[in-house]
Design a protein that fits this description.
The structure is a homodimer of 358-residue chains.
Chain A (H helix, E strand, L loop, with lengths): L1 E10 L3 H18 L2 E7 L4 H7 L5 H9 L2 E6 L14 H12 L3 E7 L12 H4 L3 E7 L11 E4 L5 E10 H17 L3 E6 L5 H13 L7 E6 H10 L6 E4 L1 H15 L6 E5 L5 E5 L16 H14 L3 H16 L2 E2 L9 E2 L2 H11 L1
Parallel strand pairs in A: 1-2, 1-3, 3-12, 5-10, 8-9, 8-10, 13-14
Antiparallel strand pairs in A: 4-5, 4-11, 6-7, 11-12
Helix pairs in contact in A: 1-10, 1-11, 1-12, 6-7, 8-9, 10-11, 11-12
The structure holds 3-isopropylmalic acid (IPM) (2 copies).
Chain lengths: 358, 358
């Protein structure tokens, strides 16, 4: 039997609850497809800070690197919000992404027919939306140097960061995006601010140059401010979007909210080789942590992405996705996606229902 | 009688049509309040490029600086989209903002009761939205140095920009925002990415420190990715938003689209002293230019902001705003805001109807 080592990083807040459920679903889906999954759990984020003094212990990074794929719950919480930068849970996450070299972050935002009413957009606008945001994840202003605090000519304090992209960083994320678009509806929209920023001018130039390698794909370009508008005006115009780290952070969250059900949305972060990182896009929701109220479906769907993009186990991935659809069709809903006429369940019970249909 | 010199910059595309209409409305509203307005028209943007070879001729900047306020139509168009950076219409606009030192960009996004159906958001979500985005306009990554193209250690081309803020730049925009919030509903939300960027950490620190000077104002902080979501999820939670140049570019456009009627939205850019710059937020719409189809109301409302924030002529400003409301109540609509049961009119006719009610 094929066997893989999976590192679980439950993290903070609702992370442990949703990861526990997703782990069971992963195991079963794998077993049914002849795949053995071995799990090890490591500390990450605020819980790692509390236990070890750092948000990403060396041992965690080493274990993640040595495994075949990493499933993360969520990190952060009010408790650590005012920590110094190197002691923030978020800094641990950024180091993990960099340490695993997962430069391509895939964030699907699809409106499920069962949940179209959850969107704040009018039904006719939301219905059928199916977007994939491909976000560059290990470059740009998140990692660019120089960065820090300084003093300007007037003796005043300054804070500064560098948005920088090298040609090869743009090329590799663009290639991923073209490939993703090819497996979808063949339309790629590259988002930048090339009317103002040199980093975006290079971005647009490189993406444009690559288009000839992907003759079947219809490439367009859009300024980021316009993209933020068009996602609200007519989200159905988008198939695949590719953009830099910071614009991707903003636009993927906007796109996810357009679906109205961010408790449902997974993400995959992959590199050229080595393990990928899979995580729900929602946060750690400290206010409902430990109350069995969290929606585990985003993490369960992240587990499906782990099987597909991380291990190449398409059949097991499909099994999980079909089980989620079936569970929704049966009317089970956690509080965040509940509507009258459906059956309100907690995190564990939702997991059990998915397990039954896997 | 009080008298003022106004520089008109019609610009490109539909700019000249909408500015012509707004000029007449300005004149009349001024005259009725005992204010004499003298106009001079100058070249700017693509039309300046075609006529003089540069997007912001020295003469235009000098005239703008010498006047009491500047009204801009719109700039840009496909024709100049692939120009080199220093020959882009947008570069002219950035130089104009810098040259006038208008560091505070006020962008209202309010859903008008008459136009609530124009929003793609559900009626109960859109109804009553009334947001003011205060965007820092002459700093940050738009102007930060170093910027340009370079070569990295591997001999690869790079493109880079610098996001940088000095303490005083943050303080002055924050003060404007606190003042704006005070005249509104007393709530200010500062948007940043302080979990990742040092420039944002300084931003948050300075804004927080200033709060004690404005005891009546309720200050909150939000990460930019969350703000992009919350604008879709529940835009009514926002009163005044203050943010940096690039986040403001993105979020103000998103907020404007939430109203569903960007053909209605004005903006004001003001500095510590000297003339302010007033412009509709819509673009030059080259596809409908010269066809008398454009909606002049955004420019007319920009003229009202010019009277209020640029000249301190509150009565004349109110006159224009009341006239726009009345004209909408009478059912007149340009194509962009038309709905069955209303009266479709062109740009000029809309202007005439507003003039009748001024
Ligand atoms: C937590 C934060 C550092 C992170 C980011 O900005 O990348 C998050 O917003 C995300 O999108 O995964
Ligand atoms: C045209 C462009 C340079 C400009 C900007 O990015 O500031 C525009 O998008 C705006 O918001 O006024």
């Amino acid at each position: 039997a094929r066997s893989y080592n999976i590192t679980l990083l439950p993290g903070d807040g609702i992370g442990p609850e949703v990861v526990a459920v997703a782990k069971d679903v992963l195991s079963l889906a794998g077993a049914l497809e002849g795949v053995e999954l071995r799990f090890q759990e490591k500390l990450m984020g605020g819980s790692a800070l509390d236990a070890t003094g750092v948000p990403l212990p060396d041992e965690t990074l080493a274990a993640a690197r040595d495994s075949d794929a990493v499933l993360l719950g969520a990190i952060g919480g009010y408790k650590w919000d005012n920590n110094e930068k190197h002691l923030k849970p978020e800094t641990g996450l950024l180091h993990l992404r960099a340490g695993l070299r997962v430069f391509a972050n895939l964030r699907p935002a699809a409106v499920l027919p069962q949940l179209v009413d959850a969107s704040t957009l009018k039904k006719e606008v939301a219905e059928g939306v199916d977007i994939m945001v491909v976000r560059e994840l290990t470059g740009g202003i998140y990692f660019g140097k120089p960065r820090g605090f300084g003093t300007n000519g007037n003796g005043e304090e300054t804070g500064f960061n560098t948005e920088v992209y090298a040609a090869s960083e743009i090329d590799r994320i663009a290639r991923v995006a073209f490939e993703v678009a090819r497996k979808r509806r063949g339309k790629l929209c590259s988002v930048d601010k090339a009317n103002v920023l040199e980093a975006s001018m290079l971005w647009r130039r490189r993406v444009t140059a690559l288009a000839s390698e992907f003759p079947g794909i219809e490439l367009s370009h859009m300024y980021v401010d316009n993209a933020a508008m068009q996602l609200v005006r007519n989200p159905k115009q988008f198939d695949t979007i590719v953009t830099n780290n910071i614009f991707g952070d903003i636009l993927s969250d906007e796109a996810s909210m357009i679906t109205g059900s961010i408790g449902m949305l997974p993400s995959a972060s992959v590199g050229e080789s080595g393990p990928g990182l899979f995580e729900p896009i929602h946060g750690s929701a400290p206010d409902i942590a430990g109350q069995d109220k969290a929606n585990p479906l985003a993490t369960i769907l992240s587990a499906a992405m782990l099987l597909r993009y991380g291990l190449g186990e398409e059949n097991a991935a499909k099994r999980i996705e079909a089980a989620v659809t079936e569970t929704l069709n049966q009317g089970f809903r956690t509080g965040d996606i509940y509507s009258p006429g459906t059956t309100l369940v907690g995190c564990k019970r939702m997991g059990e229902e998915v397990l039954k249909t896997v």
